[in-house]
């Protein structure tokens, strides 16, 4: 879709994904120390709304430059949530309960990908062709 809407090559369209991942990699460098100094709640309260704003702005971007900037900054603010979530789970659950909680937390991205495909294919059956 990005390729068609912004008239980009395949290589340039992958750059948006790469910059989001770069932001996800750099975000914890700032967010993790901030969570140690100011506690986790302020980091969540600042980063999660800004992640929402910049990811939403990606949908409204009409130029490659604005899309790349929004993707990078969105990843930057999304990164701390990924790294401090396991510490938050450790704060919320007793050691005997953490195994299941962390398993659920780390399994959701893969389960979402699998269940999304399964639900799509179960709802969108190909229609038989008339002869």
DSSP helical segment count: 5
Structural class: mainly alpha
Question: What's the alpha carbon Rg, rounded to whole Å?
Answer: 19 Å
Shape: flat
Order of helices and strands: HHHHH
Q: Segments where pLDDT lies below 50 for 5+ residues? A: none
Percent helix among the residues?
over 70%
Q: First CA to last CA: what distance? A: 33 Å
Q: Number of DSSP strands?
A: 0
Biggest beta sheet summary: none
How many domains make up the 3D coordinates? 2
Binned strand content: under 5%
* Mean pLDDT rating: 88
Structure overview:
There is one protein chain. The protein is mainly alpha-helical. The chain has 2 domains: 2-92; 93-124, no CATH class. 86% of the residues lie in helices and 0% in strands. The chain contains 5 helices and no strands. The longest helix has 29 residues, at 10-38. It starts with a helix and ends in an 8-residue tail after the last helix. The relative contact order is 0.13. The mean pLDDT is 88.
How would you summarize what this structure contains?
Helices cover 86% and strands 0% of the residues. It has 5 helices and no strands.
């Amino acid at each position: 879709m990005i390729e068609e809407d912004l008239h980009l090559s395949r290589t340039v369209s992958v750059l948006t994904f790469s910059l989001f991942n770069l932001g996800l990699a750099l975000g914890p460098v700032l967010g993790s120390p901030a969570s140690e100094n100011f506690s986790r709640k302020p980091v969540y309260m600042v980063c999660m709304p800004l992640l929402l704003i910049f990811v939403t702005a990606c949908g409204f971007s009409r130029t490659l430059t604005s899309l790349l900037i929004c993707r990078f900054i969105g990843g930057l603010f999304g990164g701390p949530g990924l790294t401090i979530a396991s510490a938050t789970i450790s704060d919320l659950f007793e050691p005997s309960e953490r195994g299941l909680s962390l398993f659920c937390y780390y399994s959701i991205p893969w389960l979402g990908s699998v269940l999304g495909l399964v639900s799509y294919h179960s709802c969108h059956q190909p229609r038989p062709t008339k002869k």
